[in-house]
Design goal:
The chain is of the alpha/beta class. A six-stranded mixed β-sheet has the order 6-7-8-3-9-10, with helices on both faces. Helix 4 crosses helix 5 and helix 5 runs parallel beside helix 6. The structure holds adenosine-5'-diphosphate and magnesium ion.
Length: 231
């Protein structure tokens, strides 16, 4: 039994909770003794230099990796109790955004954003309505037919955001979402992401190495260096 299950002061309210989590790669340090809680609706930045362990922590949260030690609780799913076949159910409640966008190159904007809803088996008409509404939200209503290579970097990340929010996820995880963008576009993207998440009531965790950008932002900071929380 984990430490907090019999603890009334525990993270019952937390939507994300890491309890003394460690993960060591075969060839690489990973992260050690990471603990933090995030409450529903909170906006949090995970900040630290390259190699600090930010992506590792996000992967532990979407359960691409399982901890060697400690426990991760995400939206009611606990790592040590979540069998592999149930991880897709957890993932349905998450929206993931990546530095390199990860759009399907041979699908247009509309199809990239619609895909998560097709996977959920929604009726075609509902999908169409929802996708057009989300494309409107991210300012791409007139880009539905463009392939990723016909879009700017900022536009591609807007598609990435649209795809992440189209399912109304409880949690949005963004791994260096502005890392491939120029500073002006990066601010726009970050503002859009946080605005939409707030509107939606989503919990947002953004990993970034960009200290400059964070100095202007609202939200909680978790600072990590060499696999450990330093602030
Ligand atoms: P960040 O996202 O903050 O740049 P990462 O979480 O990617 O950091 O990496 C943390 C540490 O773990 C780094 O030292 C990195 O080299 C190592 N690492 C990350 N992924 C792997 C892997 N698949 N195999 C071995 N080592 C890894
Ligand atoms: Mg990373």
């Amino acid at each position: 039994m984990s430490e907090w299950e019999d603890d009334n002061e525990g993270p019952d309210e937390a939507i994300i909770h890491l309890d003394n989590v460690s993960l060591t790669y075969d060839r690489g340090p990973g992260v050690a003794q990471i603990s933090f809680s995030i409450m529903p609706g909170e906006l949090t930045y995970l900040i630290g230099p390259s190699g600090a362990g930010k992506s590792t922590i996000l992967k532990l949260i979407y359960m691409l990796l399982m901890p060697d030690e400690g426990e991760v609780l995400v939206n009611g799913y606990l790592t040590h109790r979540t069998r592999r076949k149930y991880i897709p159910y957890l993932r349905r409640t998450l929206g993931l955004i990546f530095q390199d966008f990860r759009l399907l190159p041979d699908r247009n904007t509309y199809e990239n954003v619609a895909l998560p809803l097709h996977i959920l088996g929604l009726p075609r008409r509902d999908i169409r309505e929802r996708v057009y509404s989300v494309l409107e939200d991210v300012g791409l209503a007139d880009r539905g037919h463009h392939l990723p290579r016909e879009l700017s970097g900022g536009e591609q990340q807007r598609v990435g955001i649209a795809r992440a929010i189209v399912k109304n996820p409880a949690i949005i995880l963004a791994d260096e979402p502005t890392g491939n963008l120029d500073a002006g576009t990066a601010y726009e993207i970050l503002d859009l992401l946080t605005f939409l998440a707030e509107e939606n009531g989503s919990t947002v965790l953004v990993a970034t190495h960009d200290y400059d950008m964070m100095s202007h932002k609202a939200g909680k900071l978790i600072e990590i260096d060499q696999g450990k929380i330093v602030n």
